[in-house]
Write a structure and sequence with these properties.
The chain has 386 residues and is of the alpha/beta class. The chain has helices at residues 18-32, 57-64, 83-91, 115-129, 184-194, 212-229, 240-249, 255-274, 293-300, 317-326, 330-333, 355-362, 367-376, and strands spanning 2-8, 39-43, 46-50, 70-80, 99-106, 134-135, 142-148, 153-157, 161-162, 174-178, 198-205, 232-238, 279-280, 308-309, 379-383. Strands 1, 2, 3, 4, 5, 6, 7, 8 and 9 form a nine-stranded mixed beta sheet that branches. Strands 14-13-10-11-12-15 form a six-stranded mixed beta sheet, with helices on both faces. Helix 5 packs parallel to helix 6, helix 8 packs across helix 9 (293-300) and helix 8 crosses helix 13. The longest helix is centred in the last third of the chain and has 20 residues, at 255-274. Bound molecules: adenosine-5'-triphosphate and magnesium ion. The site of magnesium ion has 4 residues, from loops.
């Protein structure tokens, strides 16, 4: 029988929580495949998808590759763990004149041959059936795997497809992603979701200084993230008034610092109102003036009780771009519509702001009412993959 054999990674580390992790992972797999017909079963250390439409195998694999917590998968043939049945399947594998190696894993120790013995026997069988083939234990052109599991089934396959890794979505709480229209923040959201965090998102727009296309772009980015994280509740608020006020009343070099501090305050309030446990940004150390250590100290200092996660902090732009291409957000991120931060942009933003100076600039503003006013413009859109 044709099946997909699924492997999961770090769940082993989780001790007593393991059941929670496994149940969440299984639920997430089923949700991801909700439009497919299939049978799901588990055996120690592996999951098996069977009875699916073989014409849809590629699509099903693509979906499974987006499930966090799955480590790798293999299209495999499942047979009862009996020598003759295993041989029958292996003997049909076409190797031609390539070099090969047979890998045997035997979780089921009741199987009468040792892994070595079985690998050797199957190797001989293949050598006989494929004139010109050879065994190469170190650098084989083709790899053949036989995995005998505790359910007394053997799985035979020649391909291991890498999946996302990470932890099952929903096992690490919920966070609020500050989602701009840029390259970095979608990647930051993806990286946190990969560690099991469910996402909501917050976008600040500066309409009418920014176009409605800028907003559409952010909605599109959220949609693309949904391929991995299911549904996203996107909070959209207007930042126009805040920016106008800062522009009017504060020193221009502190403009971005104060903007960010207000963004953080709004984000914290939205987190509290929605029961979210962390703020996530796409900042990367030293990338621009507002992302120096001092800048992040000054912007982070207004958030009292939540962690601010910056998963891109130590990444080069090239590395961030590589991930964004992988998760398919890059092409949308580079569309030219500006998000709010480019409006009123000062020529010389401060590189090493201080909390004292920021507070002094803020004394010209009515911060609390600006934050509250910002939140009254909130619009909530539920985003799903399209
Ligand atoms: P990105 O590529 O994510 O836009 P960036 O390199 O352009 O990042 P900044 O514009 O300085 O950097 O923004 C830093 C972070 O602040 C972003 O990654 C995002 O998390 C948050 N942010 C910036 N602008 C907005 C916005 N308009 N709405 C929501 N969050 C924002
Ligand atoms: Mg940006």
């Amino acid at each position: 029988m044709k099946v997909l054999l699924l492997r999961f990674g770090e769940l082993y580390l989780k001790g007593n929580n393991r059941n929670v992790f496994e149940n969440t992972l299984i639920q997430n797999i089923k949700t991801m495949l909700k439009d497919e017909q299939f049978t799901f079963s588990k055996t120690f250390g592996r999951y098996v998808i069977s009875n699916y439409d073989e014409n849809r195998q590629d699509e099903i694999i693509e979906k499974l590759k987006k499930v966090f917590g799955l480590y790798s998968l293999s299209p495999a043939i499942e047979v009862d763990a009996q020598l003759d049945k295993i041989k029958e399947v292996v003997s049909q594998i076409k190797i031609g004149r390539q070099s090969f190696k047979v890998f045997v894993k035997r979780a089921d120790k009741t199987f009468p041959l040792s892994s070595m013995e079985l690998a050797r026997g199957l190797g001989e069988l293949l050598l006989n059936q494929n004139v010109g083939s050879s065994v190469d234990l170190y650098n084989p052109q083709k790899e053949i795997y036989v995995d005998i599991r505790l359910n007394h089934k053997a799985y035979i396959f020649d391909e291991v497809i890498k999946c996302q890794g990470g932890l099952p979505l929903g096992t690490a709480g919920n966070g609020l992603l500050l989602l701009s229209g840029g390259i970095d923040s979608p990647v930051a959201g993806y990286l946190m979701a990969k560690r099991g965090m469910r996402l909501e998102a917050l976008h600040f727009h500066s309409y009418p200084y920014t176009s409605t296309q800028a907003k559409d772009k952010v909605i599109k980015l959220a949609q693309l993230l949904c391929n991995y994280v299911g549904e996203i509740k996107l909070h959209i608020v207007s930042f126009t008034k805040v920016q106008e006020e800062i522009h009017k009343r504060c020193k221009s070099e502190y403009m971005i610092t104060i903007m960010r501090r207000i963004m953080m305050r709004v984000a914290e309030k939205i987190c509290i109102a929605n029961n979210l446990g962390a703020i996530i940004t796409g900042e990367s150390l030293g990338q621009v003036a507002s992302q120096t250590m001092q800048s992040m100290t000054v912007t982070g200092s207004v958030v009292d009780n939540l962690p601010i996660f910056r998963p891109c902090i130590a990444m080069d732009k090239e590395e961030i771009i590589a991930i964004s291409k992988n998760i398919n957000t890059y092409e949308t991120s580079i569309l030219p519509f500006e998000d709010c931060c480019t409006v009123f942009l000062p020529k010389n933003p401060v590189i090493k702001p201080t909390i004292r100076q920021a507070e002094s600039e803020e004394s010209y503003l009515n911060i609390n009412s600006l934050v509250d006013e910002c939140i009254t413009t909130e619009e909530v859109v539920l985003i799903n993959k399209n």
